[in-house]
Amino acid sequence: MDEKLLIKKAVKAMENAYAPYSGFKVGACVLTSDGTEFTGCNIENASFGLTVCAERVALFKAYSEGKRDIIALAVAADVDEPVSPCGACRQVMMELSPDALVILSNRDGSKVMRTGPGELLPYGFKL
Ligand SMILES: O=c1ccn([C@H]2C[C@H](O)[C@@H](CO)O2)c(=O)[nH]1
Ligand SMILES: [Zn+2]
């Protein structure tokens, strides 16, 4: 797996962020076991609670195309330090991509953290 390339794609997806309210742009790129990639960006709404994060957009795109075997998820935001996913995305990652390598990046891939859903959400809720 080319982690650098996956980060690059997350950084690129950030450009499509629709974030007129927060100004906080995020991009994501999911990689599945057959090599397919799905990008995502955050999409905000005037009714703030309807906002969807970049991570969930990318994960939902993969699932909606029948690709569930997610091996990696790169996330990048337009900030100096690697982005930290919100609690909702951690919960979704735990269920939809439990074994994925999660790569968190800053705006240009110069600072990166490697983690996973289990580490991001210890004792996460399960049914
Ligand atoms: O990991 C994160 C953190 C935040 N956001 C989005 C949600 C909202 O549009 C904006 C500010 O919270 O950033 C993401 O997409 N992913
Ligand atoms: Zn989120």
Give a structural overview:
With 127 residues, this protein is an alpha+beta fold. It has one domain: Cytidine Deaminase, domain 2 (3-Layer(aba) Sandwich). Helices cover 29% and strands 23% of the residues. It is built from four helices and five strands, in the order αββαβαββα. It has helices at residues 3-14, 54-64, 87-96, 117-120; strands at 26-32, 37-41, 70-77, 101-105, 112-115. The chain has a five-stranded mixed β-sheet with strand order 2-1-3-4-5. Helix 2 (54-64) runs parallel beside helix 3. The termini are far apart. Bound molecules: 2'-deoxyuridine (DUR) and zinc ion. Zinc ion binds next to helix 3. The site of zinc ion has 6 residues, from helix 3.
Which properties best describe this structure?
127 residues; cytidine deaminase activity; binds 2'-deoxyuridine; binds zinc ion; 4 helices; Cytidine Deaminase, domain 2; globular; Cytidine deaminase; zinc; alpha+beta; hydrolase
What proportion of the residues form beta strands (DSSP E)? 15-25%
| CATH architecture heading | 3-Layer(aba) Sandwich
Separation of the first and last Cα atoms: 32 Å
Discrete helix count: 4
Describe the global form. globular
Structural class: alpha+beta
Small-molecule components bound: 2'-deoxyuridine, zinc ion
Helix amount, in percent? 25-40%
Order of helices and strands: HEEHEHEEH
Largest sheet: 5 strands, mixed
Q: What is the average of the pLDDT values?
A: 98
Residue ranges: pLDDT <50 for 5 or more in a row? none
CATH class: Alpha Beta
Overall structural domain count: 1
Number of DSSP-assigned strands: 5
CATH topology: Cytidine Deaminase, domain 2
Strand order of the largest sheet: 2-1-3-4-5
Computed CA radius of gyration, to the nearest angstrom: 13 Å
Keywords: Hydrolase, Metal-binding, Zinc
Cofactor: Zn(2+)
EC number: 3.5.4.5
Catalytic activity: cytidine + H2O + H(+) = uridine + NH4(+); 2'-deoxycytidine + H2O + H(+) = 2'-deoxyuridine + NH4(+)
